[in-house]
Specification:
CATH architecture of the largest domain: 2-Layer Sandwich
Strand content: 25-35%
Number of domains: 3
CATH class of the largest domain: Alpha Beta
Radius of gyration: 26 Å
Helix content: 25-40%
Number of strands: 25
Shape: globular
Distance between the termini: 30 Å
Strand order of the largest sheet: 3-9-10-16-13-12-11
Structural class: alpha+beta
RNA sequence: CGGGGCAUGGCGCAGUCCGGUAGCGCGCUUCGUUCGGGACGAAGAGGUCGCGAGUUCAAAUCUCGCUGCCCCGACCA
């Protein structure tokens, strides 16, 4: 079996602290049939999963639709989640020797003819700038000034390979210039027609790493190292169990020699590609004629990788952990980890607020991101629902009775469990509690995946399974025609290759021939 | 590109069949009472009914044209 550089090592093994398995039973529970005004509640997941997703994102104020079709506004709360994810990745990029840089948004059209392979994948969804001026129009608005037509059209980047490699050509002449380990945090535009907030929008934010190396081995190692980082951050920071595995020829990036991805299972059983890493071989170096002198004083093409994750990860968090009350955020990426809701009457107001204020300061001291919700215009009950919708991991309730007793009520969002803690020791208890929630969310997601992932060897069973949703582990004969046929008949695609040499005894799920690969199949977002 | 549907206050909708000058819920504003699971009362503000033309004494409502959006299919990945 081929060595995937430690990628498969982690397959199915969480390495996370276990917690009582009874918690997992709560994952699929439906919320109690309480009355809620329709305009405030989120559409139940079981009723309409797609609508539930949109409801949660809009009502939790993560994002809103932009004026141009397919664009989205990432609102402060949603952006804060992205910033937390971004920080987790950036820190690891830096720790592995990468540096950040920024390349231009606008790319000369001529750059795109240089390497047809990778352009092919994006050509049909590129926005192009053709003019540089507006002028007053008769109707009182403005119109494009035809006089300002550009000599060369400019393409708004759908990805930055072309500009970056054009620059690398200038920067690289010797093995002494290598490796180059550059990452860029940027926005890109792909003119999508069918869009969904965070998952697929015409413009989105991402990170693209582009590295150049002197040897194939070093580049390939780099691609796998970044894949490992993707997996590690997804699991430890976002509590998303992911499968890290190689892609098939049909599913890999057009310009790549090899592509790996991390795949997560959403709450409806569909797969979401949450990050990709590519070993590009010398394809880009050849397309852009980037050569260098190696230690033996020979001229050679540079070896390359690229890798990226995007704001799509925010959607993955929503669809993995959310429930009928709204979001459930893993503490490590939650903008607010604990919210304090004071409850008071006119007489008790000052004492309660004073107590809540002290508590807030104490919790902040303990290193927890805390917010005291002292809004006077809404009731405590409203606040409970509001913060549950927004997925805050812990809520602390402080009322007159609590203050009198020197205690407060702490409620976990992940399992809806209440406990009463003394005010003095409460702040110190929260960090551990938050870690427990982090682990609990991971466990719940992992158990859900285990329940909806299994080996299937019968075609009819496979078709039924795909309708229901889930990950199917199957044999595949390795024929691209088979892969296409499966897709056409079931909408399922091969998400990753688990084992790439004869997986003893397995037959191809479609053709019935002896299987050359063991793969994971699922419908994907 | 083909089929279907919808455009009415910030949001969600009724009213259109059978023309008579616009209403409901939520939200918003003010005041008061409330506050341990989405509070209540009272008083308010807010709409050229997608755009254009026609019929009529009178058009959200009927006729024609246009535009935009949504769903299904096709195409694409």
């Amino acid at each position: 079996m081929q060595n995937f550089g430690g990628v498969l090592r982690n397959f199915g093994a969480s390495g996370r602290p276990l917690i009582s398995s009874r918690y997992s039973l709560f994952y699929l529970r439906s919320s109690p049939p309480k009355f809620r005004p329709m305009s405030r509640a989120v559409t139940p997941r079981s009723k309409d999963y797609a609508r539930w997703y949109t409801d949660v994102i809009q009502k939790a104020e993560l994002a809103d639709y932009g004026p141009v079709r397919g664009t989205m506004v990432i609102r402060p709360y949603g952006y804060a989640i992205w910033e937390a994810i971004k920080a987790a990745y950036d820190q690891r990029f830096q720790a592995t020797g990468h540096v950040n840089a920024y390349f231009p948004l606008l790319i000369p059209r001529s750059y795109f003819s240089r390497e047809a392979d990778h352009v092919e994948g994006f050509a049909k969804e590129c926005a192009v700038v053709t003019h540089s001026r507006l002028r007053a129009a008769a109707d009182g608005g403005v119109e494009v000034d035809p006089e300002s037509k550009l000599e060369e059209d400019l393409v708004i980047r759908p990805t930055s390979e072309t500009v970056i490699w054009a620059m690398y050509k200038q920067w690289i002449t010797s093995y002494r210039d290598l490796p180059i380990l550059i990452n860029q945090w940027a926005n890109i535009v792909r003119w999508e027609l069918r869009t969904r907030l965070f998952l697929r929008t015409s413009e989105f934010l991402w990170q693209e790493g582009h590295t150049a190396h002197a040897t194939a081995e070093e580049a390939r190692e780099e691609a796998l190292r970044m894949l490992d980082i993707y997996k590690e951050v997804a699991e430890t920071e976002m509590a998303l169990p992911v499968l890290a595995s190689p892609k098939t020829e049909a599913e890999k990036f057009a310009g790549a020699v090899e592509t790996w991805s991390i795949e997560a299972m959403m709450g409806d059983g569909r797969a979401l590609q949450a990050g990709t890493s590519h070993f590009l071989g010398q394809n880009f170096a050849k397309a852009f004629d980037v050569t260098f002198r190696n230690e033996a004083n020979e001229e050679d093409y540079v070896w390359a990788t690229s890798w990226g994750v995007s704001t799509r990860l925010v959607g993955a968090v929503v669809m993995t952990h959310g429930d009928d009350k709204g979001l459930r955020l893993p503490p490590r990426i939650a903008p607010i980890q604990t919210v304090i809701v004071p409850i008071y009457t006119d007489e008790s107001k000052s004492t309660v607020l004073e107590s809540a204020g002290k508590l807030s300061a104490g919790i902040e001291q303990a290193g927890v991101r805390v917010k005291l919700d002292d809004r006077e215009t809404v009731t405590p009950g409203f606040k409970f629902n509001d913060w549950e919708l927004k997925g805050v991991p812990l809520r602390v309730e402080v009322g007159p009775r609590d203050v009198a007793a020197g205690q407060a009520v702490v409620v976990r969002r992940d399992i809806d469990q209440k406990q009463t803690l003394p005010l003095e020791t409460l702040p110190a208890a929260l960090p551990d509690l938050l870690e427990e929630i982090q682990a609990s969310l991971y466990r719940q997601a992992e158990e859900f995946r285990e329940q909806n992932m299994r080996q299937i060897e019968d075609w009819q069973e496979f078709k039924d399974f795909m309708v229901k949703g889930g990950f199917a582990v199957c044999g595949w004969d390795g024929d691209p025609a088979t892969e296409t046929a499966i897709k056409e008949e079931t909408k399922a695609t091969i998400r990753g290759i688990l084992q790439d040499e004869d997986p003893g005894g397995l037959t191809c799920i479609y053709s019935g021939k002896p299987a050359r690969f063991k793969v994971v199949l699922a419908r994907a977002y």
